Amino acid sequence: MRLRLLFVVLAAALMVGALFLHPPLWVYPAVFALIFLFYANTFSERVPLYLSNRTTWAALALVLDGETIAVGRRPAFVDLGCGLGGTLAYLARARPDWDIVGVETAPGPYLIAKARTAFLPNAQVRFQTLWKTNLAAFDVVYAFLSPVPMPKLHAKVAAEMRPGTLFVSNSFWADGQPYDGVIEVNDTRSTRLIFSKK
């Protein structure tokens, strides 16, 4: 619904601009290209660009602090749909002992996330759909998606995540799926991190 509203507003703005401002013709394909770069994956993935905030990043860092990992193995975290890479950059700095990975399919956010994490040796951004990401490789899996893909994601989590690993979802959970707890984040959005231990 929000995505449709965004497109309607942008279309209206372009029409008003065309009627009253008479912008040069190159403006229209440039605006289309910009929208495409940031929302190209929205139709196939059914997930708009949601961004986690700094307070949520700090809460996730505390979650990583609480995870017990087998000795002799480097722990790994993945952000499914990492957007602009804010979560990755924060966690890579806060937890240099963890491998921090993000996957993203929208070209614009992917490039921004890649740039934000370029000089962080424990961070990696992959141009890859979350559906082709092997969750068995990670100790903590984080998602801030939308209600639409959650049932399918829960099936993927159940099939792929190893025992003892943690799945954390920002705000959305599939109906009827059990969870182990909720972390209430003290931010302006009243963010809820819903989690389940495998």
The domain tally reads: 2
Counted by DSSP, the helix tally is 7
Rough outline: elongated
Low-confidence stretches: none
Distance between the termini: 33 Å
Binned strand content: 15-25%
What is the C-alpha radius of gyration, as a whole number of Å? 18 Å
Total E-strand runs: 7
The CATH homology group name of the largest domain: Vaccinia Virus protein VP39
Q: Trace the largest sheet across and list its strands.
A: 3-2-1-4-5-7-6
CATH class of the largest domain: Alpha Beta
Overall mean pLDDT stands at 84
Structural commentary:
- The structure is a single chain.
- This protein is 40% helix and 18% strand.
- By secondary structure, it is an alpha/beta fold.
- It has 2 domains: 2-39; 54-197, Vaccinia Virus protein VP39 (Rossmann fold).
- Strands 3-2-1-4-5-7-6 form a 7-stranded mixed β-sheet.
- It is elongated and about 65 Å long.
- It starts with a helix and ends with a strand.
List its traits.
single chain, 198 residues, alpha/beta, Rossmann fold, 2 domains, 7-stranded mixed sheet, 18% strand, elongated
Task: List strands and helices in order, with pairings.
Blueprint: H1 2-21, H2 27-39, H3 42-45, H4 54-65, E1 76-80, H5 86-94, E2 99-104, H6 107-116, E3 123-127, E4 140-143, H7 150-160, E5 166-170, E6 181-184, E7 192-197
Parallel strand pairs: 1-2, 1-4, 2-3, 4-5
Antiparallel strand pairs: 5-7, 6-7
Helix pairs in contact: 4-5
